[in-house]
Write a structure and sequence with these properties.
The protein has about 375 residues and is an alpha/beta fold. The chain contains 11 helices and 15 strands.
Length: about 375
């Protein structure tokens, strides 16, 4: 490092107590380890040279000093749009474009404080969240990615025929929604595509969820069920989630035509949806309703769920689990398991039980 950098480093380290210094060097060591791991894939001489730990400590301190101070709050508002490095904050009187730093994790629906930063503003504080919908980060499964915050209802959108109904993702969303504290509505879209041959086969896939999840059958093509869905969501903050191509944006358009959301088509030959929505957006409607459109997903992982707590997210098990021979029964391999027995007898949905076992295996 240059002389000025060394002086800066020594001055800043002297301002920290022992505990703060230990945490700082621990973070720096982790950054260096990540860089070393990446460099092993690039065998040139320059990339194989390990940088001193002080350089990483210096970078962390400089980044920290460039962040807005907690006491310099310029305003507060609601995050209504989220991009890779910026977000838009509805401050009531205006919409403020804010820079996002690595130190502050922001989600659509968050209430945040923002402060002056350079020539603009940056989010400096996220208010405590009442509810969340989250999943493991795609790039790093050890990190939580909050999809939406402070939501009342999560609308899990599935479609029939194009693309066909895939119920497995419903189970995972059910668990994540329960964990995060919101309510769930299942919106079955494109019902106008059902004919006498496909109606039974498609809708029978939803039999395991009857009595567990409130389902709304709708179609943006003929308008059926849209009014019912709109009434269910009135006055609430609602996030629309689901596979690509199931019609999340189309449903939002049907509820609020003035929004004119971009709508994509299902990919020919594969029956898969195209990723029309590429970033999350919150729309305010008259009457206090807020609709959040989120990008479509191919799959959905579970955050902070372990084998011991998994049965809690299958509420229909409770009726039978008290009769299990063992109090800590995992409902998988134990003898005299009342949940397993109920599944075999048909008193409990075999599909839901098989889903439970599949998720349990993935967590062990």
């Amino acid at each position: 490092m240059q002389k000025e950098q060394t002086q800066y480093l020594n001055t800043r380290l002297a301002q920290l107590d022992d505990n703060e210094r230990k945490k700082l060097f621990k973070r720096a060591a982790l950054l260096r380890k990540i860089e070393q791991s990446r460099n092993r894939r690039r065998p040139d001489e320059e990339s194989m040279r390990s940088r001193p730990l002080d350089e990483f400590v210096f970078k962390l301190l400089k980044d920290e000093d460039q962040e807005p101070r907690m006491g310099e709050c310029a305003g507060q508002g609601l995050v209504t749009w989220l991009g890779p490095k910026t977000c838009r904050v509805d401050a009531g009187h205006s919409v403020v474009e804010c820079h996002l730093s690595k130190r502050v994790s922001v989600a659509i629906g968050d209430t945040v404080d923002y402060s002056p930063s350079g020539e603009g503003f940056a989010v400096c504080r996220v208010k405590p969240r009442l509810t969340v919908l989250s999943r493991p980060d795609v790039g790093n499964g050890n990190l939580e990615r909050v999809i939406a915050a402070n939501i009342d209802v999560v609308v899990v959108v599935v479609s029939v025929v194009a693309p066909p109904l895939h119920p497995k993702i419903i189970d995972r969303y059910m668990i994540a929604i329960q964990r995060g504290g919101a309510k769930m509505i299942l919106a079955v879209n494109k019902c106008d595509l059902l004919d006498e041959f496909t109606k039974i086969s498609e809708l029978d896939k939803l039999a395991p969820y009857r009595g567990i999840v409130h389902a709304c059958f709708c179609s943006t093509a003929d308008g059926s069920g849209i009014g019912d869905l709109e009434n269910l969501l009135a006055g609430q903050t609602c996030a629309f989630v689901g596979h690509s191509g199931v019609g999340k944006s189309s449903l939002i358009n049907a509820i609020a035509p003035s929004l004119n959301q971009l709508v994509g088509e299902v990919s020919a030959g594969y029956g898969r949806g195209t990723h029309t929505t590429t970033s999350s957006t919150l729309h305010k409607l008259p009457g206090g309703t807020r609709l959040i459109d989120t990008p479509g997903v191919r799959s959905f992982g579970l955050w902070d769920i372990d084998a011991a707590t998994l049965p809690w997210y299958f509420p229909e098990f409770e009726e039978f689990s008290s009769e299990c021979k063992f109090r800590n029964c995992t409902h998988s391999h134990e003898p005299s398991c009342a949940v397993k027995s109920a599944s075999l007898k048909g008193s409990l949905s075999h599909h839901r039980y098989e889903t439970y076992l599949r998720i349990l295996t993935s967590l062990e």
